[in-house]
Amino acid sequence: MAKILICDDESGLRSIIKRYATFEGHEVLEACDGMQAVEISLKEQIDIIIMDVTMPVMDGFSAVKKIRKTSEIPILMLSACGEEYNKICGFQLGIDDYVVKPFSSKEIMMRVNAILKRTQKSSKPDRKHNYEVFRKDGFEADMTAHKVFIDGVQADMAPKEYDLLFYLIRNKNIAVPRGKLLNEIWGYDYYGDSRTLDTHMKLLRQSLGPYAGLITTIRGLGYRFEG
Fold this sequence. Notes:
With 227 residues, the protein is of the alpha/beta class. It has eight helices and twelve strands. It comes from Pseudobacteroides cellulosolvens ATCC 35603 = DSM 2933.
């Protein structure tokens, strides 16, 4: 059972999601604006936040920015806007997933459970990887310290960019299918909008700058890190 915070100014929408969440055995807290969500996240041990973007008092993006200063609580963002700019803004702030309205409560809970499963898995120590530090020319990825350096300058990347990059490095020189990446990084296999991967790959390549070419697109399959 997880403790879920649902933040949306529409009480009806909160009630619908809450009904599905409690049916699955989760505990649910509610907030009607971003400020309330920030306050609750500081007081309660929240496992995941479902956050709307457009709300009074404080919008979802501003709330995520404040929450990320003190916590890495998984955040699933809801929005009526499906523009890539809004998705990129959310992912750069460190959200875990982005769902465009209208949606089904079943879809929301599948995504929530996938995120919870992934975060629980990632919290366990993993000693099977051999490449904890990877260097090539002016590129360095320290997977133990969770840092990336571009020509000696530390890169500022979103959490999912690190996850995606480190997974590709640990499977370097192997063509990794899109479905495998979605399953390993986001915890779902092509469920919903697979463009989530495309958006993160675009952000990751921007962060890598002159070393973006280390990641090759394999048309019709996925991606490969050239090690």
